[in-house]
Amino acid sequence: AYINNFDIRENIAGVRSSLGLCPQHDILFDTLTVEEHLRFFAKLKGCPNSTIQNEAFEVAKEVGLEGKFKAFAQSLSGGQKRKLSVGIALIGGSKVVILDEPSSGMDPGARRQIWGVLQKAREGRTLVLSTHYMDEADLLGDRIAIMAEGVVKCCGSSMFLKKLYGAGYHLVIVKSSDCDVDKLTHTIKSAIQAAEFESIINTEVSYLLPDSESSKFPDLFRDLENRKSQLGIISFGTSATTMEEVFLKVGDTGHHDDDDDNGTVAPTHNGVIKRENCFTNFAYENEKNHISDSENGNLQRVFGSTNKIYAEKRNLENEESEKQIEDIMAFNKGF
């Protein structure tokens, strides 16, 4: 396996200088300060002594820990420890950064701050991030892979996945006290026959509008706007399918064998994801998202390593599996 074009069997020093890791559980030293943590890991990654101090402070400032620069790790809150772990992963200009649920344990404000840090840091790097927050995946992911039962079910851009698994658009209407819901439903179905009534909660009535009927939306919206007082409508609006809905639907339906220009769903063979199927059409997506070939190579290699781990766990008895296990052992030995 290669990380940033460094062979893990032959150039482990190059791998260390290029790789940043934020594990799911914080691995920190209680008796070291924030500054000492950042300086220590910057040194491990080969940063020059002359730049370590400035870089440590800049990273602490980026993640919002400049006020805790001299504080011991044991005195930090859970969210502050996560920030420090993210800073450790990014310091030293790591070109490949793996982040395992980086914003877990943070309050909403801190989460958004970290999102801003990662969006700023993504330029010139390959970021591989796992998360349970679907809005986080939607915001930060150029390509999103969804796993269920330990298997990658699909992979593609946010727009591709929403189009593939989304049911359509949600029309939410805020009604007045004199609104006749049956009449309102009849009006909507007259314009779009495939529209479905979803729910009514307090003053909000929700309908599902299929994506295939989007050409009829303007006429429907104009009609609702012109007849607001007659139908008892205070206001209305629409929202597209969210990544959370996509995630729930993927988990319910299992894997599919469809594909598209913007992404793929991944069939399996003996329980192992076929890398060539899961990550085809990279050229199209990279061109659209302005991802360089070198970054693309890094991403494929990182996911390639993941597939090797799957192969090891399932004890595939073939030459490729043996070679994969050798690579993993060499990587572990290097550390």
Automatic annotation (TrEMBL):
<dbReference type="InterPro" id="IPR026082">
    <property type="entry name" value="ABCA"/>
</dbReference>
<dbReference type="GO" id="GO:0005524">
    <property type="term" value="F:ATP binding"/>
</dbReference>
<dbReference type="GO" id="GO:0005319">
    <property type="term" value="F:lipid transporter activity"/>
</dbReference>
<dbReference type="GO" id="GO:0140359">
    <property type="term" value="F:ABC-type transporter activity"/>
</dbReference>
<dbReference type="InterPro" id="IPR027417">
    <property type="entry name" value="P-loop_NTPase"/>
</dbReference>
<dbReference type="InterPro" id="IPR017871">
    <property type="entry name" value="ABC_transporter-like_CS"/>
</dbReference>
<protein>
    <recommendedName>
        <fullName>ABC transporter domain-containing protein</fullName>
    </recommendedName>
</protein>
<dbReference type="GO" id="GO:0016020">
    <property type="term" value="C:membrane"/>
</dbReference>
<dbReference type="Pfam" id="PF00005">
    <property type="entry name" value="ABC_tran"/>
</dbReference>
<feature type="domain" description="ABC transporter">
    <location>
        <begin position="9"/>
        <end position="103"/>
    </location>
</feature>
<dbReference type="InterPro" id="IPR003439">
    <property type="entry name" value="ABC_transporter-like_ATP-bd"/>
</dbReference>
<dbReference type="GO" id="GO:0016887">
    <property type="term" value="F:ATP hydrolysis activity"/>
</dbReference>
